[in-house]
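User: Please fill in residues for this 141-position structure.
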């Protein structure tokens, strides 16, 4: 995971801002990389799963994953751009073992049980630039 964090930091430092990318071109692309860490404890996830089937044991939770965001923008004029994007915030994986005692009551059959949750989204927005002088300005999304 350390290699990914270093790579994400380097990639983030090398990413150009939309204003720099859109100097003379009306279309620009923005890429962002990062790391997600879902703040669920194994105990919390186990309580959720146990409410479905109380035959579960040996819970394991992996809530860390990579994040990627890709934005496509169109510069309307010097101060306004319209952006459309996709983001993947990563995945949470939960594993446990069922003894099968609840299988007749709608629970899990005997053996390993796993659940995965992936979070993705799309966005549509407006970016506004407010230049103060040639070298300094404000940028808002």
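Assistant: Residues filled in for all 141 positions:
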């Amino acid at each position: 995971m350390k290699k990914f964090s270093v790579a994400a930091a380097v990639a983030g430092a090398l990413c150009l801002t939309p204003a720099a990318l859109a100097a003379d071109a009306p279309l620009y692309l923005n890429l962002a990389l990062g790391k997600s860490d879902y703040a669920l404890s194994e105990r919390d996830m186990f309580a959720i799963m146990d409410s479905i089937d109380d035959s579960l044991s040996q819970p394991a939770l992996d809530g860390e994953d990579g994040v990627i965001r890709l934005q496509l923008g169109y510069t309307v004029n010097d101060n306004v751009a319209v952006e459309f994007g996709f983001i993947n915030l990563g995945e949470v994986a939960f594993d446990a073992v069922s003894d099968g005692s609840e299988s007749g009551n709608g629970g899990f059959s005997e053996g390993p049980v796993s659940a995965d949750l992936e979070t993705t989204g799309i966005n549509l927005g407006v970016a506004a630039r407010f230049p103060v002088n040639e070298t300094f300005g404000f940028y808002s999304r």
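For context: Strands lie at 27-37, 56-62, 64-75, 80-98, 111-131, 137-140.
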